Amino acid sequence: MTQVTDGIHWFKLPMSPEEPDRDHLNVYLIRGDKGYLLVDSGWNTDISFNTMHNHLIKTGVSFGDISQIVVTHVHPDHYGMAGRIKQLSGATIAMHRREEELIESRYIHLDGLLHETDRMLVANGVPYDEMVAMRDATVGMEKYISPAYPDIRLRDGDTVTTGEFTFRVLWTPGHSSGHLCLYEPDKKVLLSGDHILPKITPNISVHPQSIENPLGRYIDALKEVRKLDIELVLPGHDEPFTDARRRIDAIIEHHIQRNLEILIALQHETKNTYQIAREITWANGTEFPDLPAFHKRMAVFETRAHLDMMTTEGNLDVLPRKGVIYYRQR
Question: How far apart are the first and last CA of the chain?
Fold first, then answer.
């Protein structure tokens, strides 16, 4: 537990329910006049719950003191425990309206989403045996979620007020279709969720629940955030940091370089998404065949996001062949 600035405490929670010692997720507790605002919640596991409980005790706060929960997006590490905390505290839950639309298909009635995931993997050229492994990589994760629908549906430009803080809601689609950030202009603080991270580039993918052209929308949102006067960024992972503009520029440059990798892969022949993803070098220099199944799925869908953006910008032609989509340079 760390007080990062007056009135805002930073809690680290276990990142993965199955590997609780691997990395961490950040949640933020913000002091108000009539209770506290919690931004994101962590996985719904006993170790995550107990870790948060211990952080609260050290801060002199109980679950009953939490009056508001803002969810930056409904990925399980950010949303999983929101329902459990609401039951204990009576807090209201707020999220972007587009995130509410994802809850039922993602965590309650999953069959349709699994079928659509299969269909998209096949359309992107993934062989059947790898498709099954990629699809099943996250089956069962729903048991770590305590689903809860929002009491408040936020839109871009809304405000969230607690005590001396008045946060402006920024709709920042890309990592998720309804991802939001909270910006406090007087304090010059940005709670960035997974929109801007200090060390890694957030995964931006085309998948059954994504927004149209998610990478293009993500970069547009980055450029809007870059215009803001920000002195401190409180991200969803890793450490708080300063110099938001420098980090935004680095993320955009990463995507420019990835586009160039894709153009090189398409220099002499048409290829599908899976074939292109196999030619890209992934995080820490890892080759595609060495990635775990879940990361392979992310790599394929992330490559597809680049292809969609490059197609939208007029750099590629799309060539459907027997249910699989191929691409070539224009």
Answer: 53
